[in-house]
């Protein structure tokens, strides 16, 4: 791995996007490495995954603008699809994934955090979907996942304006679960992950699936899925 740093301890896996000089922007190489790691995590005995960014400044400043400005249509399509594959894999992974947002989480960086189950942030975090300011619309699920997490009015406010919000505002709208000081963000996230890891992997995984599926279905179907999960 060149761009992802992987640390494993007691069933907790920390994935750090390691491109500090580019504010952890996610190029195609970063996305390809994510696929390899997630493929492994689907099968191994790890219990909880934490995603964060290297350094003190950024979780991820988003898709790699420099890379996007240089590629043609074929690579652009590959890049777009890859991004969706990564975020879908995170969402569908039958293990909790926690984003530890230690600075900028913009565009694709915010969308990466949205695909996680829980979001913790440090006070210097800045979240936003600035794509419209670049003449594009969010492309890695921002319109859909943000909608489901904060509701249509807030999602439209953030997407139409492209404005950045701080950790406190993000928490007030349910976009961030909790704010920890920059020094404690990772240790608190790990200790939270360790508490989850004490529980049944199977039960936590099924619960994740049920909540996720429940957001996209009606109550009757969601309740039937819950009943069905007991007999699995
Ligand atoms: N990509 C590539 N490099 C980036 C970057 C990014 N997103 N963000 C920052 N960098 C690089 C800078 O170019 C700079 O590199 P050097 O010049 O030093 O080589 C280095 O990181 C440090 O950045 P700054 O010097 O700008 O640092 P500042 O503290 O002054 O500013 C900033 C921090 C976060 C405010 C600023 O860097 C910034 O505004 N960055 C861009 C943030 C942004 O707009 N992010 C959204 C990207 S668009 C789609 C799929 C996905 C997407 C769209 C479509 N389809 C499927 C169609 C996703 C789009 C996006 O994510």
- Strand fraction equals 15-25%
What does the overall shape look like? globular
- The end-to-end span amounts to 36 Å
Rg for CA atoms: 17 Å
Spatial sequence of strands, sheet with the most strands: 1-2-3-5-7-10
> Can you count the beta strands?
10
The domain tally reads 2
The top level CATH class name of the largest domain: Alpha Beta
Q: Can you tell me the residue ranges where pLDDT is under 50 for at least 5 consecutive residues?
A: none
Could you name the key traits of this structure?
six-stranded mixed beta sheet, 10 helices, globular, single chain, 2-enoyl-CoA Hydratase, Chain A, domain 1, alpha/beta
